[in-house]
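Posted in: Protein Modeling Q&A

I'm a second-year student putting together a small comparison for a lab meeting, and my supervisor asked me to include a predicted structure for 4-deoxy-L-threo-5-hexosulose-uronate ketol-isomerase. I've never done this before, so apologies if this is the wrong subforum. The sequence is pasted below exactly as I got it from our records. If anyone can share the structure token output, I'd also love a short note on what stands out.
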Amino acid sequence: MTNFSFRYASNPIDARKYDTQEIRSQFLIDNLFSENEINLTYSMYDRYIVGGIMPVSKDLKLETIPYLKSENFLDRRELGIVNVGGKGTVTVDGEAFELNKKEALYVGMGAKEVVFSSNEEIPALFYINSAPAHTHFPNKKVTKENAIVIQLGEEKTANKRILNKLIVNEIVQTCQLQMGLTELLPGNVWNTMPAHTHNRRMEAYFYFDLEEGQTISHFMGETQHTRHIFMQNNQAVLSPEWSIHSGAGTSNYSFIWGMAGENLDYSDMDICPPNELR
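Accepted answer (user: helix_wrangler)
Welcome! Here is the predicted structure, written out as tokens:
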């Protein structure tokens, strides 16, 4: 079964007036994983799709949705997948890719059939991002051994973390989709600080591996008009091109960042010093 929803883009001046409920309804994606279902959110921010796929007792095929007006989901799109659960398999037009937790797969435009399955008693949880594409690039699996790994942050600022670049242009040819995984070390809670914006592309953040009973405050908005959204484990949030995207948790956690837009330059950021945020 495939469930899907639609989100319009928001004007930043309008967003300044949103109350808590409206902020959450516009940007938070709170129901990604449900047994034997595919849950998709189609956003007008660069026509980005965020989704969760949880095969338990049967395989799940990625079907097209009405917003795409195409016979197959990937007729005009590319797809990034990161498994955040038990071991699973993604089969693309008959070719099987086994994914352990925190391993990624890029699927190029034009694939006709993409099927998701779990291999163990603990179900796989496939987090997916998709963006429009203009040409086909080869499918490619990316393990943590293949990733570009960067150590960031310091203990004294509570943001010591490991950045794993997975589906990025240095590793995988893509049209515009970029994805990576950041792991906060124990005792560290801040991500993406100093905060930044980039008017040339949007992002989506997916938070996972958060301890039960804990929470994450995701900060968004213009640098001088910030807002926050309290989030739980296995939830995602849309980040417009005009918004910062940063967060702090009541314990450490991991998150997946995905982006699409004007360019593939990871360092394309307009940074705002922490003491200048409002």
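A couple of things worth pointing out for your meeting: The CA atoms of residues 13 and 117 lie 43 Å apart. Residues 2-276 form a domain with the Jelly Rolls fold (CATH 2.60.120.10).
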